[in-house]
What we know:
Elements: H1 12-29, E1 34-37, E2 41-44, E3 89-90, H2 121-128, E4 137-143, H3 153-164, E5 170-172, E6 183-188, E7 191-195, E8 214-218, E9 230-236, E10 247-254, E11 261-267, E12 270-277, E13 283-293, E14 295-301, E15 307-313, E16 318-324, H4 338-346, E17 350-356, H5 368-388, E18 393-397, E19 403-406, E20 409-412, H6 416-430, E21 433-435, H7 437-441, H8 446-452, H9 467-487
Helix pairs in contact: 3-9, 5-6
Amino acid sequence: MKNNANLPGGSAAAFIATLLLAFSLISYVNPQSSYVLFGNVVFHLPQWDPLGERSGSDALDAMVIEAIAVMDTNVVLDVKEPLAPFKSIPLVEQSPNPPVVKLPAPGPGQLLFKESSSGWVKFAAALHQVKQQGDPLRVIHYGDSQIEGDRMTGLLRSYFQSRYGGTGPGMQPLAPFVPHAAVKHETVGTWHRYVSFGRRDQRLTSSKYGSRGVAHAYMHDSSRKEGFDAVAHFQSRGWGSRSFRSYRRVTLSHGPITEPFELSVFSHDSLWQSGFMEPGPAGHIVLESKEPISNVSLAFKGPSPVLNHVSLDGMGGVAVDNVAMRGSSGYTFTFMDEAHFGNSLKVSNVGLVILQFGGNSIPHIDSEAKAKTYGRKIQRQIQLFKRLLPEADILLVGPSDMANKEGLIWVSYPFVSSVRDAMQEVAMAEGVAYFDMLELMGGAGSMSIWAAMKPPLAGPDHIHFTPSGARLVGKALVKAIDNELARHAH
């Protein structure tokens, strides 16, 4: 199908209309007061800040570009206190019965719902009941490489924690794949990464990855007489929202344990707790500090179990997790062990699931039929989350515009709009919210405009956003969510 909306082949009038639409959208969420287009045209835009504050360069304005630090593998952490068994909390079922209240359908400028939907009744009710002690209410943001490094997610976390309380950066992998804007990771030892969406040789035969769809295991050296086989260290960075920088609860989520191993937990150069993990089912270990902390180290010795993630949270409030799945098209959640995945989610007190995918499939879709097939695959993921988390609401975020270079011209992929339409249709069919990123950008052909902005809002690959572009989209998403929650305010 030929895409007649691409800018290079359009008329001057169409180009100007698209340009004006793009700038009206930018002024809506305005990352800055002015832009220079094509080197000599300056557009001045009114400023708006949905979070009620501006932070200059801000940590979230810049993707962290640095090599992942590696701790000295010769360091020996001496534990002289007697070892006692850790208590692991097994995964258990929960069956909440959320209230249903009929509300008007959303209007323009809000998240898209089907006409008969009452919107985020369940999530809004959970937020109104959020406590400042105990388990935080979780928002899990799953996505592809567009959200790597906490991009977009960080703005959501700042929004929720500033309004409903909560601290900490949320779920973290044992070993990082890319640097994280809120947390500096350091590792000792050899770590293996397992993903539910990667090559077959990267997958677990058990298909049990926990709630992130990503797990790790370390290499055990049976000849080691002292020290540890592996260490995972987490240090809060000194920038970004202050609520990200400290936490009081550290949770280690693990798979089934077949052989005992030793676990020692340190914080601020002091031993917090040390003990043995005995064979048992999948579960999680929770440590709570009386005072806020900003760094923690987990040291392991003995045969490695599957380690799903470490959560760094406050007491109560809201926790927002960034789960970036580079290369994923978003339809492999159904490939995981459903019972294990469901139990992992249910014990996490999830109030909202955000699914942001589509970009990794668009280059491979060359027909309307394939776009609809992709939509059906996404629909099965939505059905899975609805089945596993009936008490939670779901938001599907559609794809951005994407362009491919044809000769000297960047042209949008021909079926990007078809993929958007297919995703929106299944969201409406399943009664979940939809956020139209393609429409926000200005439609098919807009990626070239975003890449030409000064500073650019999209990268030279015409696929990924720059930090400024990601912030613009993230702020628009925050505003849409805030509009929806305002409808449910009591």
